Amino acid sequence: MTVFTDLFIDGEWRPGSGDQRFDVIDPADLSTIGRFAIATEQDCMDAVDAAAAAQPAWAATPPRERGELLRTAYELLTDEVETVAELMVRENGKSWADAIGEANYAKEFFRWFSEEAVRIPGDYRLAPSGDKRIIVDRQPIGVSLLITPWNFPAAMATRKLGPALAAGCTTILKPARETPLTAAYIVDVLRRAGVPRGVVNLVTPSPTGLLVKLMIDRPEVRKVSFTGSTEVGRELLHACADSVVSTSMELGGNAPLIVLPGADIDSTVAGALLAKMRNGGSACTAANRFYVHSSVHDEFVARMDAALAAIPVGPGLERSNGLGALVSVQERDKVARLVDAAVAGGATVVRGGRASRDGAFYDATLLTGVEHGSAINVTEIFGPVTAVVRFDEVDEAVRMANDTVYGLMAYVFGEERAAVDVARRLEVGMVAINRGVVSDPAAPFGGVKQSGLGREGGAEGILEFLEEKYLALTA
Ligand code: NAP
Question: How many A from CA of 170 to the centre of ligand 1?
Fold first, then answer.
């Protein structure tokens, strides 16, 4: 397998101009699997220059050509899906099933946006006065800085690159420090698919905040599309305010999962397992707060316990393991601290509650008697911990579910009519009803409140990279 460890600027792989590198670590055994180039200020400015120089020609490239290029990239990724999965297992620690699932999901963004490139909408209307014709054109917004997190290293990159390229924007991809190898591989797929020089660039700057700000301050940069924590998102919103740069923000979540009276426990446990354990719990959409009605609480807990016990834990390269490592020892320790505090606060450990393997692993854990408003209930756990709160009144469950600054995702299990009624009352961007996963390239993904601004995927995703231009014509 070819592993790329350099920056990609103006169509070429090159080491950082400061000739410095950082280690990429396999969290399953803590070995170093690569030394990736650090981008200096000069490298970041070169990336902006390259993207700016390529912008006019890329915007003028016929949509069909942009779409076909994305389609070629989709086909290459289809052939190489196992390579992408292996890179993610190695640098992120996730299980093989999660990695292959993500690699397949990631490539679909290139297919979806290859089809959207030729369907960019416009509008025509006659002014009410009858004195003019109004044409609304949509044009690429311009050079786009795409900043991605470590938890979905492939899908978060393609979910941004796909619509940006389809819209006619040139790009600078800035992957997370923990997972640059997958992002670099995807950039090389685009290179092989024939993306012209300067249209896609990749930098890994250090110090991140300072150098990202310098890129945002360049007048050529017109868009920042960010996926990551709410804390960093807030900082970036401030940074973008200075030069009034357009932003799309996919931020943190604290998803409630509500089990209503009368819920079918078989399908609820199957859905809850997916909602909690996909990606080892390291997902912005992961069910974080389980609100379970008293009438089904004990059966749900017993069945969830049995289901968690059946998941084999270990390195993702052993394909039968269902739960891999967390991304780092720091993340594992953060999860452990949240569990320890919950237990000190009176929660009961039904299963797990410790790290029983070497490496960045944490045991699949089930807690009951968790208090609404406690640290584990208000913090994104980002690990394999099911934290259950019991409720008696549905109104109380809705109140608790909405009692958070986040608003990305929620899950409701129950009789469909009752579940839809509850779903309508939840302050979130997405609700899964009697199912454990919502992600789909054809659907608008995103949150409300402090979980973000804008949507990715669906017909909406490409609009984030387009700007309306109004042409007034004589009637
Ligand atoms: P993070 O710490 O916010 O980092 C995300 C990205 O931002 C990384 O590339 C990071 O680079 C960069 N970054 C850090 N500080 C920065 C700064 N001051 N200015 C500009 N960029 C900066 O998030 P994470 O820990 O990687 O990912 C987990 C978070 O992402 C969770 O909160 C999760 O909910 C969220 N997430 C949201 C979605 C969604 O669609 N809503 C999807 C996935 C994940 P360095 O690595 O160089 O620090």
Answer: 21
